[in-house]
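note to self: dont lose this again. the chain is below, predicted strucutre after it. 148 aa total, dont forget to put it in the shared folder this time
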Amino acid sequence: MRALIQRVSEASVTVGEEVTGEIGAGFLILICAMQGDTEAEADYLAGKIAKLRVFQDEAGKMNRALADTGGAALVVSQFTLAADTRRGNRPGFSTAARPEEGARLYGYFADQLAAAGIAVARGRFGADMKVRLLNDGPVTIWMDTADR
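---
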């Protein structure tokens, strides 16, 4: 699985006219299941992200995790994180999980974050979403379970 994590002051996702998820301070997590991914990859990412220490402590150092701050996570599916740009100018997405499996792992990942005590809001898998965010820092971190 691949995730792009952005520390935000606030974020929301809208489908059509409906706000499907919004948070205050916390993480906007763009997530993509890749071919061959299982619950093990989702468990790993959820655990790492829940404990990721990128929030400032009293000394101003990035030393606090999301749970330490009482922050939330907005989880948005984004298959374009699977983009292969090695050839030509049009990216390929053939390494992304099939939509049914991607939807299942997206939901499972969000559920695992919630099980770790994180308040979770969500986008809508497969929808045309509009995401708004106020990046804090900016702090943006890329994670790929293939790199562990």
